[in-house]
Amino acid sequence: MREEKVTVVGAGIGGLTLAIALQRQGVDVEVCEQARELDEIGAGIGLFANGTRLLARLGLGPALDAHSCDPTEVIFRDGLGGARIASHVLAEGDWYRTEFGSRYSGIHRKDLQRILVDALEPGTIRLGRRLTGLTEEPGGTAAMHWADDTVSRSDVIVAADGIRSLVRPWVTGTDAVRYSGTSGFRGVVRVADLPSLPDPRAIQYWVGDGAHLLHFPIGPDYEYVTFLAVVESPKQWPDPERWRLPCTTEDALAPFRGWHPAVTEMIGALPHTERWGLFGLGPLPTWSRANVVLLGDSAHGMLPHHGQGANQSVEDAFALAEILTAEDGTPPAARLERYWRLRMPRAQRVQKVSWVTNRWLHIPDGPEVPERDALFRAVGTNLPWVHEYDAQSAAAGEDRTTAPAPATTH
Ligand SMILES: Cc1cc2nc3c(=O)[nH]c(=O)nc-3n(C[C@H](O)[C@H](O)[C@H](O)COP(=O)(O)OP(=O)(O)OC[C@H]3O[C@@H](n4cnc5c(N)ncnc54)[C@H](O)[C@@H]3O)c2cc1C
């Protein structure tokens, strides 16, 4: 496969990681991105060991280190009074790195994007190139149709075009998008502007009836936290064409009135103009058709409550690169099927727990609280199956099977 050409549609974390991994193996790869410039702004992201151990293999470890921090603990707190419900150490005693053999990285999205783009050969990314459709040609390959009315072909086409993928319905015959009944307000705030916040260096979930706030530190000096405040509204998403809706700061603050000052201080620290609908994908029958395959959110868009969407996209990228570059003479379509048959069960498992976690973060005072608290306390013992996994080894046929999924929030 090293002589053949791969076109990646979408320069998100998944598409960029795949392009780097393939290019390092000498594969001719282009990335076509609809945006005229790459401008990830105003949010952070958490990369866990299942993502960072792979990125380190591309030589990106030092760059990630220079822009990241390790959270001290994961803490669950009562959103109203602020009492600790449960916690587990992460950086203390180097627990997380020792346990999983790689770091956690809290990083600004724009820094991660720059690290990935800089790792590609110049000219790999073609900006302002929007895919408008695919057609299947005689011989069982697809032609790509672009917004500028051009048509192109490639040996392998990878649709890393995000949860609102144009390609997914063409590949699978279904869209499978589900609105979660929740929406979020997000932002990045300087810790110095949060005088009421205890443990600013921790990952913290502030939980309550029908809402929660998650925040974690990003950047090398623990100077900033990134947050996502989630509420159970609107019940129905009003506009299927737009997944972000205009809002006011008051819309973001109102559901948290009476919560701990650290929560209201954080949400109120910046103006809110957009409410993010939180969507996930249901199960798909396949991820490939002809020489086209889905990767990242286009295949398994999930709720963000495990911080795994981007990490799963990185796993996909390494698995696909490993399978495409194996020297075993297998034709492309069979390689694509091997990739998704490996990836689908794991991604679905993470999708499922992310969906279930949403409910546990929003339990009202009442009979379910002891069970919720027990799940939060078990976070350390329930972590490993997500974080220890090595997607590249799995794709290479080295046996790194995951443990059975516990009934868990993590
Ligand atoms: C609030 C929130 C918080 C999150 N926090 C975390 C976290 O802490 N950790 C984590 O791992 N994940 C997190 N995620 C999930 C993570 O952001 C996504 O899973 C990840 O970015 C998906 O990457 P991707 O490359 O698959 O898709 P995307 O990042 O969506 O990239 C898709 C790209 O394709 C381009 N594109 C789309 N259509 C076309 C077209 N027709 N032609 C050309 N280009 C096209 C788009 O412009 C875009 O650049 C979070 C998500 C949300 C919503």
CATH class of the domain at 5-68 and 108-177 and 281-361 and 380-395: Alpha Beta
Uncertain runs with pLDDT below 50, 5 residues or more?
A: 401-410
Query: What's the story with the biggest beta sheet?
Result: 8 strands, mixed
Give the CATH topology of the domain at 5-68 and 108-177 and 281-361 and 380-395.
FAD/NAD(P)-binding domain
What oligomeric state is this? single chain
Shape field: globular
Q: How much helical structure, as a percent, in the residues? A: 25-40%
CATH architectural arrangement of the domain at 5-68 and 108-177 and 281-361 and 380-395 = 3-Layer(bba) Sandwich
Keywords:
25% strand, 15 helices, alpha/beta, FAD/NAD(P)-binding domain, eight-stranded mixed beta sheet, 410 residues, binds flavin-adenine dinucleotide
Notes on the structure:
It is a single chain. The protein is an alpha/beta fold. The protein has a domain at 5-68 and 108-177 and 281-361 and 380-395: FAD/NAD(P)-binding domain (3-Layer(bba) Sandwich). It has helices at 13-23, 49-57, 61-67, 95-100, 109-118, 167-172, 249-253, 261-267, 297-300, 309-325, 332-360, 369-377, 379-382, 384-387, 391-395, and strands at residues 5-9, 28-32, 44-47, 73-78, 84-89, 105-108, 125-126, 131-136, 142-146, 151-153, 156-159, 177-190, 203-208, 211-218, 224-231, 244-246, 274-281, 288-289, 292-294. An 8-stranded mixed beta sheet has the order 5-4-13-14-15-12-17-16, with helices on both faces. Helix 10 runs antiparallel to helix 11 (332-360). Mean pLDDT is 94; it is low at 401-410. Bound molecules: flavin-adenine dinucleotide. Flavin-adenine dinucleotide binds at residues 9-15, 32-35, 45-46, 130-131, 160-162, 166, 184, 186, 228, 276, 296-297, 304, 307-311, 313. The site of flavin-adenine dinucleotide has 32 residues, from helix 1, strand 3, strand 12 and helix 10.
